[in-house]
Amino acid sequence: MLDRLDREILGILMRDARIPLSTVAKTLDVAPATIHQRVRRLTERGVIRGSRLLVDWETLGLPVVAVVSLALDEAGKMREAADRLAAIDHVQSCFAITGEFDLMLVVRAGSSEHLGEVLQTIRSTVPGRSRTNVVLTTYYEGRIPGLTEVADG
């Protein structure tokens, strides 16, 4: 169960994981020890599983983003397929989905040609039918949903 304070702490940390906990305490008008205890408890319970950097993919040489949908030849083998796909460096995310396809991947590549190479690797790693959509413009990504509106329970 997460209470209002836990949700407020998480909201602040999700926007900036590097913010000092003392600043979180001041922002929420709570004792620093309370914030430290709450964060430790949230981490121990697995609510907080780490922190990440937001990077400029274009600057890193990976400006091409594609969403790849896969219908697997091996029914019921989604976990195994996902594990094999995790070995491909440019597969950023993998989701089990409903509908016509079994898995949805987010792929980052350096160019259209490079994307073609990554797609060949995906197809040889996990046989099946696929559909690829290339992202033309990213208006936003990684938005943080409001946690304070979520009902306790």
Q: Can you characterise this structure?
A:
- The chain is an alpha+beta fold and 153 residues long.
- Helix content is 36%, strand content 19%.
- The chain is built from 5 helices and 4 strands.
- It has a 4-stranded antiparallel beta sheet.
- Helix 2 (21-28) crosses helix 3.
- The longest helix is centred in the last third of the chain and has 14 residues, at 112-125.
- The radius of gyration is 20 Å and the shape is elongated.
- The N and C termini lie close together (6 Å).
- The mean pLDDT is 92.
Specify the biggest β-sheet: 4 strands, antiparallel
Shape: elongated
Distance between the termini: 6 Å
Enumerate the strands of the largest sheet in spatial order, edge to edge or round the barrel.
2-3-1-4
Using only CA atoms, what is the Rg?
Answer: 20 Å
* Helix share, percent: 25-40%
Number of helices: 5
Unreliable spans? none
Indicate the mean pLDDT: 92
**Order of secondary-structure elements:** HHHEHEEHE
Task: Record keyword descriptors for this entry.
4-stranded antiparallel β-sheet; alpha+beta; 153 residues; 5 helices
Would you kindly provide a brief summary of this structure?
The protein is of the alpha+beta class and 153 residues long. It has helices at residues 4-15, 21-28, 32-44, 78-85, 112-125, and strands at residues 64-72, 91-96, 103-109, 128-134.
